[in-house]
Structure prediction request, 379 residues.
Amino acid sequence: MNNANEDKKIALAKQIIQNLNKAIKEHIIFDTEPSKFDQSGYLNIREGYIDKKSIKRAIIILRGLGCEWARNTQGCCSMCGHLSASSNGNPVSFDSLAEQFDRALEQCEFNNISMLCTYNGGSFLNDNEFPKAFRAYIYKRVNEKKIKRFVIESRVEYITNEKLDEIEVSLPETIVEIGVGIESSNDIVRNVLINKNTERNQYIHIGNLIKKRVQIKLLSYVFLKPPFLTEQEAINDAIDSVRFAKEIGSDIISLEAASIQEHTLLDYLAHSINYKPPWIWSVFEVINQVYDSDRIIRIGGFEFYPIPLHYTSNSCQCDEELYHRISMYNQTNNIDYIKNFTCASGCYKLWKKELENVNKEELLDRIISFKSHLEKFHS
Ligand code: SF4
Ligand SMILES: [Zn+2]
Prediction:
């Protein structure tokens, strides 16, 4: 196919995905009552691993204005349902945000917790989501609590030298991880299937910026099982993407196994064409292929707000044992937890069988031929 035709197809497929996302977002009923924004959406204490030690980490998800890309008419990533917990752009006062954060902090015992993850269902470094004054407030509280490791998330376009300076000056005693959604190293997968609206060069640029910083680490998220891919294609895509994340200098990589949140394209596809999150065996397969004892590769995809409806699963009685093994792997970085397990119920064979499924249709054509579902959605 010549380039002009390919470009036309990309534009058409993108339009279909964006129209679907837009239609799905119209079904969200936002609760924008100001008093609801005095309480964070999610607080949890889980295990983690840093400096070759198991540690405890607190995860706080604050409710704010919502991701600016998700609020854009073209926007929202296909797997992301965070917008429905936000105010959808309605102002949330500094006092409300501070109250959310302080209430959550009060519930954490920082003698035992060395890592604090503070998420906002969007970009911590975007002034239109978190004003500079509020970021300064958070930094102050992190210093007061003597938190050793602080984790935030941001889209790449908001990570600038100025923002990195702000972090280093404000948090001189803390290591800060900035989580960035690479999702996929493949442009079609990332920008059409996932609708991320980012370029590979932006990730390379951010890798170079962060490499020069001593206290700031790059945490890259790689997504496992974008829509419209077979299980085997999704595994291959995630393996390539983790390799790309390594190439750009990521200090930590998190393999994000797809989960299904309400009001997302994935949720819609789960109902319309039986999209399913990846098998846990697929998660293990990717980790087995990319494991690197010198670099932390976490398994994520569990800590979101609103709480997902479905997670990675073998749809088998072994799920609970395997979730436990994921947790143990995440707190030890010991690959034995995910290597040495066989399920007596035969789900492994079923997974192998699923890997044989081949879709010969070209990727963009899969989306274009799916268009009829859009009309169905509106009818
Ligand atoms: S995944 Fe991140 S960038 Fe994409 S819509 Fe959600 S919060 Fe925004
Ligand atoms: Zn099983």
Notes: The domain at 3-378 is CATH 3.20.20.70 (TIM Barrel). The longest strand covers residues 42-50. The CA atoms of residues 184 and 237 lie 7 Å apart.
